[in-house]
């Protein structure tokens, strides 16, 4: 399957192909219905005219990007995401811009946002949660092999493809790194202890977030939720992990969560072991697609 970036690249000489993304313009697309809006702009369903490929076109306003000083972050996001190729990572095919806007050409995730599904169901059954967690563990393994740490895994950043496959969609906080990082970022509920303490962190931060996500999938709320931010921080630092009686969750699932939510980052269950954990083996659909 090839969107026109790839088709164009094949048609052009190699030197021109290097700049393939820069040659897109709005007139290359038929614009369809709005898919949603974010902080910095709108997302539309669109079709690339030459290839007929359906995509999601994200339109960002330069003034808003400048005001919020996120141009650097966006550039990093585009640079990282455009090089990734994995079934559980949303493709970024290319980008272009005009005087007032930046356009991102994204893979279309037909089933929309995962957190809406979670809100609808309140919590997922174990087969569904395990299928998503296994897919995400595979996607994170791939990212880490490319020295990319995501740092912001949470339901709001996950989309669902046509077949029901989960896709990591937002790379705003990701970093390409060979070193250990010391930057403070991410959303409170999913912050690992070493990031709360602003100390050095590495790819193991994503294992922590996967543990938080697994808990939220199964219980419908994140594990360290509290009314005050300071209390959430305190609960994270203590790893104040409690499993409610309802909904009923298997002890193997709780075992996996407990092995991912470990304060010492180096002691968290490695992603390869997550995939071998009995709860994943027994519950995850190997196809990565949850069928209700
Ligand atoms: N590739 C996509 N396929 C399908 N729907 C999408 C896609 N990208 C975005 N959307 C929809 O458009 C909405 C807005 O997306 P966008 O990424 O701009 O904002 P956001 O991630 O929700 O918020 P923020 O601006 O805080 O990052 C999403 O919530 C989703 O419903």
From TrEMBL:
Pfam families in alphabetical order: Pkinase
Record's catalysed reaction(s): L-threonyl-[protein] + ATP = O-phospho-L-threonyl-[protein] + ADP + H(+); L-seryl-[protein] + ATP = O-phospho-L-seryl-[protein] + ADP + H(+)
Residue ranges of domain Protein kinase in the record: 29-280
Active site: 152 (proton acceptor)
PROSITE patterns assigned: PROTEIN_KINASE_ATP (PS00107), PROTEIN_KINASE_DOM (PS50011), PROTEIN_KINASE_ST (PS00108)
Cross-link position per record: Glycyl lysine isopeptide (Lys-Gly) (interchain with G-Cter in SUMO2): 154
This protein's UniProt keywords: ATP-binding, Kinase, Nucleotide-binding, Serine/threonine-protein kinase, Transferase
Uppermost EC category: transferase
Residues at which ATP binds: 39, 58, 107-109, 156-157, 170
EC number(s) on file: 2.7.11.1
Annotated GO MF terms: ATP binding; protein serine/threonine kinase activity
PANTHER family referenced in this protein's UniProt entry, alphabetically: SERINE/THREONINE-PROTEIN KINASE IAL-RELATED
Family, similarity comment: Belongs to the protein kinase superfamily. Ser/Thr protein kinase family. Aurora subfamily.
Name by which UniProt lists this protein: Aurora kinase
Lineage of the species this protein comes from: Eukaryota, Viridiplantae, Streptophyta, Embryophyta, Tracheophyta
